[in-house]
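Issue 218. Parser rejects a valid record. Input:
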Amino acid sequence: MSFVLQPWQLLVVILTGWLNRQQQAVIDFLLTQVQVLKETHGGKRISLSDDQRRRLAIKGKALGRQALQQIATLVTPAMPRRARSVVRGDHGRVRAS
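Output the parser choked on:
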């Protein structure tokens, strides 16, 4: 039994390959942009607002810890864990009973 691609299947394969290359180019640009911003900011720690922490925590959780460890250049993978308190609104404080 021989396997022959139908024309629409070939089109789908070409389209997904093109989309993958486009997405990788965007990711590479964004990573380079972050590196340039870090270089211009110097060795100083970047302070983030609660809203910025919350947004990064939501996006980081969707990626997962392992993927975040591989690609995160601006924040540490533990940062989204600390940001959970910001999302909850307790900011890491112990609540009085």
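Fixed in the parser; the record now loads. DSSP finds four helices and no strands in the chain.
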